[in-house]
Specification:
By secondary structure, this protein is α/β, with parallel strands linked by helices. Helix content is about 40%, strand content about 20%. It has helices at about 10-25, 45-50, 60-65, 90-110, 125-130, 170-190, 215-225, 245-260, 280-290, 315-320, 330-345, 345-350, and strands at about 1-5, 30-35, 55, 75, 115-120, 135, 140-145, 155, 155-160, 195-200, 200, 230, 240-245, 265-270, 275-280, 295-300, 310. Strands 3-2-1-4-5-10-14 form a seven-stranded parallel beta sheet, with helices on both faces. Strands 11, 13, 15 and 17 form a four-stranded mixed beta sheet that branches. α1 (about 10-25) runs parallel beside α2 and α7 (about 215-225) packs across α11 (about 330-345). It is globular. The structure holds nicotinamide-adenine-dinucleotide. Nicotinamide-adenine-dinucleotide binds near residues 12, 33, 59, 81 and 97.
């Protein structure tokens, strides 16, 4: 089996490369990445150790893609993954990178008759539909009320039934557009594909920054005792996300690589779910417990563009139809991120502190 992972030096891509190589030593794994995300370069030495091939290239550039040799499965894990991308700057970058670049990758699948695994996002769902849900304000978090008008929203979170009309950010739209095109490739060129809409993914190797990778950001600031801010929704820190441990994602992608037919013509949500969810306030408490450090967290009451009060993945469909469910929770994620920072303190300090 030959697997190509675009964005292979990123958080998700590099973890997939390494974990798949460990599990299937005979597979040829190739990571393709332009090393745009700061910190992704740290993975190159690890790739050598595991005999993972690395190609330095850009998915927007077909001449770079021409270097790629035949493969059986493409995992498209490259992206500008920030929901803020293009909202305060020229949107061309996120559109070219995430949409046009992805199309080039899909064409590679045609060239080699390869399977396609696409990492989509919960951000395809419209912002206003989620913001207009009924919430309960609890002591430490906002929760979805059990009484909801909109189909696809419940106390379990957001399901695939939520209507897709409405704005969702440039990032989310590039991903939705890619999903739609994959369906065309599947229908008219028989490309076997799996599309999954992931909520927040977190774990070791994520180079968290203020606009993307909040779990690492939170732990790193506690670890190096630097300040943070609760931004938006009154600055209370009650906004909530479900958090999927990267190991649970790897299990799902492993299944998609080997049993892709189960995912044919389907789109699934996958995330940590309600059992693995936390507000910023709750994450602060866990970070304090793990690090023993208490830091200054100020309040910035105004909302950032495209932010959400709460997002929780309703995993009912994928659990019922595929049998996949997350095994790990928020505490496991934060504990593992802490250990990773601790083991790699020297190389990570400049990037994450
Ligand atoms: N992290 C999350 O919470 C999350 C949630 C849902 C979906 N996703 C999706 O999962 C995928 C992986 O995300 P991640 O968290 O690993 O992000 P990441 O930023 O850590 O990794 C992305 C990698 O892609 C590379 N890259 C970017 N543009 C490129 C280009 N034009 N050509 C080649 N390489 C390029 C970057 O250098 C980086 O190494 C993305 O498609 C993202 O949209 C992530």
């Amino acid at each position: 089996m030959k697997i190509l992972i675009t964005g292979g030096a990123g958080f998700v891509g590099s973890t997939l490369c390494i974990q798949l190589k460990k599990k299937y030593p005979n597979y040829k794994i190739t990571a393709f990445d332009n090393l745009k995300r700061r910190g992704s370069e740290l993975n190159l030495a690890i790739f050598k150790q595991y005999e993972i091939e690395f190609i330095h290239g850009d998915i927007r550039n077909n001449e770079d893609l021409d270097e790629i040799q035949e493969f059986d499965v493409l995992i498209e894990a490259s992206a500008e993954p920030s929901v803020m991308a293009g909202l305060n700057s020229n949107p061309n970058y996120v559109i070219n990178n995430n949409f046009n670049g992805s199309i080039n990758c899909f064409n590679l699948c045609l060239k080699f008759k390869a399977k396609l695994i696409f990492l989509s996002t919960s951000r395809v769902y419209p912002i206003q539909k989620i913001e207009n849900a009924n919430y309960i304000e609890e002591t430490t978090r906002f929760s979805f009320n059990e009484y909801q008008i909109e189909k696809g929203i419940s106390s379990l979170g957001i399901s695939e039934e939520l209507n897709l009309n409405g704005e969702r950010s440039f990032y989310g739209t590039t991903k939705l557009a890619s999903e739609l095109f994959i369906q065309e490739y599947a229908a008219f060129y028989d490309v076997e594909a799996a599309i999954t809409r992931f909520g927040v993914i977190a774990g070791p190797k994520q180079m968290g920054k203020t606009d993307q990778g909040v779990v690492t950001l939170w732990m790193a600031k506690h670890y190096w005792k630097n300040p943070l801010k609760y931004i938006g929704y009154g600055g209370l820190g009650k906004q909530v996300r479900d958090i999927l441990h990267i190991d649970d994602l790897v299990n799902l992608i492993d299944l998609q690589i080997h049993e892709i037919k189960k995912f044919k013509n389907k789109i699934y949500n996958a995330g940590g779910g309600i059992q693995s969810s936390a507000s910023l306030l709750e994450m602060t408490k866990i970070c304090e417990e793990i690090t023993g450090n208490k830091i200054n967290i100020s309040a910035e009451p105004e909302n950032r563009k495209a932010d959400l009060r709460a997002y929780i993945t309703d995993n009912t469909k994928i659990t019922t139809e595929i049998g996949w469910k997350p095994e790990k929770n928020v505490k496991n994620v934060l504990q593992d991120v802490f250990l990773w920072l601790n083991e790699n303190e020297k190389s990570l300090k400049d990037i994450l502190s």
